[in-house]
Amino acid sequence: MSLAFALEKQVAISAVLRACSLTSAVFNKLVKNETLVKGDKSPVTGEHSTRVILASDTLPVADYSAQAVINVILAQAFPSDPIVGEEDSADLRNDADPTSATLRSRITELANEALALPLRDWEKAEWGIGPTHGQRTTFQLLDAIDRGNFSGARKGRMWTLDPIDGTKGFLRGEQYAVCLALIEDSEVKLGVMGCPNLPLKAGDEAGEKGCIFVAVKGQGSEQRPISSLQDATPIHIPTRPLSELRTLESVEAAHSSQSTTGRIAQALGITAAPVRMDSQAKYCSLARGDGDIYLRMPTGVGYVEKIWDHAGGSLLVTEAGGVVSDSRGQPLDFGLGRTLGENFGVIASGKDVHPSVLEAVRKARAEESQKL
Ligand SMILES: Nc1ncnc2c1ncn2[C@@H]1O[C@H](COP(=O)(O)OS(=O)(=O)O)[C@@H](OP(=O)(O)O)[C@H]1O
Ligand SMILES: [Mg+2]
Ligand SMILES: [Mg+2]
Ligand SMILES: [Mg+2]
What we know:
The protein is of the alpha+beta class. The protein has two domains: 6-235, 2-Layer Sandwich (Fructose-1,6-Bisphosphatase, Chain A, domain 1), CATH 3.30.540.10; 242-371, D-Maltodextrin-Binding Protein, domain 2 (3-Layer(aba) Sandwich). The protein has ten helices and twelve strands. It has helices spanning 6-32, 49-77, 99-115, 121-127, 138-146, 167-172, 258-268, 281-287, 311-319, 354-371, and strands spanning 83-85, 157-165, 177-184, 187-199, 209-216, 220-225, 233-235, 247-249, 275-276, 293-296, 322-325, 346-350. The strands form two sheets. The protein has a seven-stranded mixed beta sheet, with helices on both faces. The structure holds 3'-phosphate-adenosine-5'-phosphate sulfate (PPS) and magnesium ion (3 copies). One magnesium ion is lined by residues 63, 86, 162, 164-165, 167. Residues 162, 165, 309 line the site of one magnesium ion (MG).
């Protein structure tokens, strides 16, 4: 008897793999060759006007094409499943914008190249299924992107997709993740995250990079090297003394209050500097024990979190033995629509330390309100 969600898992890994191949190709062909990233790895800004045009052109190409590829594959395997995807094609259909025709032709070329990737041996051997993805026309690909327009629902089955999470990290050549998750009746059942720039072993920058993380509800979490996807290694959050814990947070200060996370770390007695990393690679790092506490505290500008930024990562952490909640200790609600609703932040950690983290959050909050 096959395990629950076996087919969904196969299809999602195949789709994420092809999207990762595409995003790596975009980085190598466009971002690197067109020197869009400066020597110090900061994203290109106003220095060279031609580069700025290329940067703004290249940035969405990878996101749109990856969403097109994954949605084509999902539509083929599960034609009636709705998808909540980050991107939509409105800007690509706007002929008043002179860049949209160029973007469309690049997307068509890139997506078809990824869809034509041959089956790997492990796909044939393990699954006996395979993508038989014919070439798509430009407008078929735009329609595929727009399969991601579903508004979300409390009941029923849907996928959620972030074709590139951590777009800024992607442009810097640092961490980003291709994130796909399956949700049923508001509960995340499957999460597949591709992290092409993440070392197989924490901190081993000189070693092999490129991992796919997979979690299935009730079946645990695993890591697979992109180069050898048949080799699944189960991952678990280790238990460490409080004093040895490290926090994980966003690189972008606008996405999470670094002053609040600093206070929380202090209240916990943590002395190590926070590990700053773009994207859901933070959830992946936590799930395999590279960091211990993921803190994402609202900056107070009214931003609402999106379900595609947390669905897969949160299941990966819970299946690896952790807890994911908002800063009040409430579970994240994936049944509210495209967003997680009012932003109470996100706190993820091992089960044993989670209550202490919530207590530290309360303390940090109280200190901050006294300062006001
Ligand atoms: N103001 C604000 N507050 C909180 N979050 C925001 C905000 N603005 C954007 N985003 C979302 O952050 C996603 C990037 O992920 P991270 O914040 O984890 O990584 S990063 O360090 O900021 O790169 C990023 O995902 P991508 O757009 O897919 O890159 C956004 O969905
Ligand atoms: Mg994102
Ligand atoms: Mg994105
Ligand atoms: Mg985005």
